[in-house]
Amino acid sequence: MSQQTPAAPADDSAVATVAKHRDWWRDAVIYQVYPRSFADSNGDGMGDLEGVRSRLPYLRDLGVDAVWLSPFYASPQADAGYDVADYRAVDPMFGNLLDADALIRDAHELGLRVIVDLVPNHSSDQHEWFKRALAEGPGSPLRERYHFRPGKGENGELPPNDWESIFGGPAWTRVEDGEWYLHLFAPEQPDFNWEHPAVGDEFRSILRFWLDMGVDGFRIDVAHGLVKADGLPDLGSHDQLKLLGNDVMPFFDQDGVHAIYRQWRVVLDEYAGERIFVAEAWTPTVERTANYVRPDELHQAFNFQYLGTEWDAEELRTVIDRTLEAMRPVGAPATWVLSNHDVTRHATRFANPPGLGTQIRTAGDRELGLRRARAATLLMLALPGSAYVYQGEELGLPDVVDLPDEVRQDPAFFRGAGQDGFRDGCRVPIPWTREGSSYGFGAGGSWLPQPSAWAELSVEAQSGVPGSTLELYRSALGIRRAQPDLGAGEAVEWLRAPEGVLAFRRGEFVCVANTSGESVTTPSHGRVLLASDEVTEADGETKVPADTTVWWTTA
User: Fold this and answer.
1) Rounded to an integer, what distance in angstroms lies between the CA atom of residue 57 and that of residue 84?
2) Are the CB atoms for 302 and 386 separated by under 8 Å?
3) Gap between the Cα atoms of 367 and 373, Å rounded
4) What is the tens place of the pLDDT at every residue in 79-134?
5) 141 CB neighbour count, 10 Å cutoff
6) What whole-number percentage of the chain has pLDDT above 70?
7) What is the DSSP letter of 436?
8) Are 298 and 261 in contact (CB under 8 A)?
9) CA dihedral 288, 290, 295, 301 (to 10 degrees)
């Protein structure tokens, strides 16, 4: 299906140039790039791979270890590229395979690894398999690679079961010949049937295609969704499904997914350079998440329980303890995350009252949200394990909560039925400069409008400015890399602290995070390395302002 041809595959020596130590992924900080919103090289208002490539030095200087690219595959873009028509081609809106090859090579020369998105739960309805399945009709072998079923009711007019789409409405669509097909997301995203051996064969081939090009790993979209319960049983009475929910479902977190990932791990381990898998797995508990990172399966799994935790010392300590305890038996690192392309940015989540979830439609107290976001970032980066940073959070960007309806593109927004549908707010292109039609994003404006206030949040406006959020991130990542007690590990030593305050030690490093709404006084723990806000030290004590995190070294 692919017609573009890359340059010769990257050899192992190119990958080896970024291998600074074994098990690099255990303490890596990985930066998520949402390509359509990162940098636009050709002025069409849409970000592209050449734009990402041009900004790689910025990411190197920020201090991250790897870049994760959201999908750039050939796609009709019904769900921002998560509806893939060809897994071995780059969509023309982003460039071509030569651009992908050049990006990977440049990243490796700069000491950055590249992780690409993989979407194995579903394809686009424009995928060649699905188009043939529709054309060939009932009984076609191609239909067995998806979930086609006859309907219920006297004339098959009812869906095969009561499952709902995550984006709202039934999870089934009827085709002209009367059969129905399953799509847990948009109708343009039919689910693969992973019971069919051809599906597994195809994806192992896709893995090898991108590994041969030199990528360092894969982020697996909907990693918990590939296998459905036998017989596709009715769900029964249930509230409207949520995109980022943790409920027990017959189509999520089925034990059968683990056999797939054990097969994938065999493929990955054929390649040098310590390539990795990271799972997007929304599970009922962090203990269930740990199943995905057993030694012969995946390497990392996003800690969504942590992402959904309020800015509250007691709640944070509970989820931190449970995470570290769950990961210890399987020998995997915790993988911390605060924001991504599917949730309201944490600078806005923390600006609002607790209990509103991960999709919030109000701006809240912007100053409070930024203060808490900065403190939350230092807390996250101090914890044992790996961490993910979503593009623009290093600028303190808030969600854009007031986008006009006519510019929105989130498919859930148009389907309604109780869904949030406001993911566009965290996908607005990021600002690079103070001026220009899109603040340096590109010469031709941006596909989503940027607030005028973003001029002063731009990279240009914050670079070299002491105390700016960008410089806070640069300092934090530099210190994290330099301090031997930061990064990989499996435990923290909790210290006594006032109510609303978290304090822990890791060797000669101490972190104190004040989640309360007022200043507290704590013992000084040596030399201050970094603080998310100004602190005052006197007579062996430190005054820590509200919503502030402080790093010390006792060395």
Assistant:
1) 29
2) no
3) 10
4) 989 999 999 999 999 999 999 999 999 999 999 999 999 999 999 999 999 999 99
5) 11
6) 93
7) S
8) yes
9) 110
Sheet of 335-337, strands arranged across: 300-301, 276-279, 217-220, 113-118, 66-69, 29-33, 386-390, 335-337
At residue 16 the predicted structure's pLDDT band, cuts being 50, 70 and 90, is very low
Using DSSP, state whether 448 is helix, strand or coil.
Answer: coil
β partners of residue 68: 32, 115
User: What residues are labeled active site?
Assistant: 221, 270
Residue 428: closest CA among 456, 468, 405, 398: 398
- pTM confidence score: 0.94
CA distance 28 to 474: 15
Question: Left if phi > 0, otherwise alpha if psi is -120 to 50, otherwise beta: which for 499?
Answer: beta
* Sole residue written with tokens 């027990």: 248
Sign of the torsion angle spanned by Cα atoms 137, 140, 144, 146: negative
| Buried/exposed code over 321-350 (b: 16+ C-beta within 10 A; e: otherwise) | ebbbebbeeeebbbbbbbbbbbbbbbbbbb
Q: Are strands 113-118 and 66-69 parallel, antiparallel or unpaired?
A: parallel
Task: Please state the separation of Cα 106 from the chain's center in Å.
Answer: 23
Nearest-angstrom CA–CA distance, 181 and 103:
37
DSSP 78: T
